[in-house]
Amino acid sequence: MTDIDVGRFGIWRRWQETSPEFAREAEALGYGAIWLGSSPGADLDVAERLLAATDRIVIATGIVNMWATSADDVAASYRRITDAHPGRFLLGVGIGHPEATREYQSPYDTIVAYLDRLDAGGVPVDGRVLAALGPKVLRLAAERARGAHPYLVTPEHSRRAREILGPDALLAPEQKVVLDEDADRARTTARGKVAHPYLKLSNYTNNLRRLGWTDEDIAGDGSDALIDELAPHGDAATVAAAVTRHLEVGANHVALQPLTADDADPLPTLRALAQALKLT
Question: Which residues form the Luciferase-like domain (predicted)?
Fold first, then answer.
């Protein structure tokens, strides 16, 4: 098996906002991985730049969108990057959501065909993870990938996902957090990132319903209870305890996405959480 150690906690961040300086700071704080969101392109140049700027931290994609990127091109990029930085790159791929893709037909068959092309292109099963929410794709993540990287989930999803994945697969959920002890202000910050677009996208809302959330919880900008679960808030110790719940019920790793008012610098949040989680 390819030896890739993502540690217990990482960072999820849009690839457009992730610089070599940010990566070096994340590494110094003790985070094990940076997950590059917002569908990085097939050349994966951003991952290569971040790896070149750091010594230890794993760079992962969270995720490369199968509709927008050629599997053959992605495989070529994967080989280039892993040749230069062995054991430090993890390819996350996924199907995205139907509202963004007019060609969104037979998504499961598309995932399988994409993985077949990655196989042919030399991307090993244990060098990739799948964006997986529902049981069918979670099972595929255990069979055809190192594991799963679910987005916009709760610890209850991690518990159920572990049952489906089995004991050995990687389970690395993304978790939004707000470091703010003022509950009303924290929920306002969270709603600005959660309600639009995610509570309007069917793959996420269907998954929340499977977890027991009601139409009333999901309607509008989301109930307080739902927002608090999707983006826990409080002081650093409170938030650290909330994200650790994923590990307690079956996740191996949690990718933290700090939410800040007015898109302020997330590093103060990440520094406080690194201390609370005892990363260094």
Answer: 21-101
Helix axes of 20-29 and 45-53: crossing angle, nearest 10 degrees: 50
User: What share of the chain has pLDDT > 90, as a percent?
Assistant: 94
Q: What is the CATH number of the domain that holds 142?
A: 3.20.20.30
Burial class (CB in 10 A: 0-12, 13-18, 19+), 262: exposed
Total tally of structural domains belonging to the chain: 1
**pTM higher than 0.90 for the full model?**
yes
What value does the mean pLDDT take over residues 196-208? 96
Q: By residue range, what is the domain housing residue 29?
A: 9-276
- Residue 118 lies inside a defined structural domain of this protein: yes
**Residues in Cβ contact with 59 at an 8 Å cutoff, skipping those fewer than 6 apart:** 23, 33, 34, 36, 47, 50, 51, 88, 89, 90
Distance CA 245, CA 97 (A): 27
Q: Is the peptide bond before 57 cis (omega within 30 degrees of 0)?
A: no
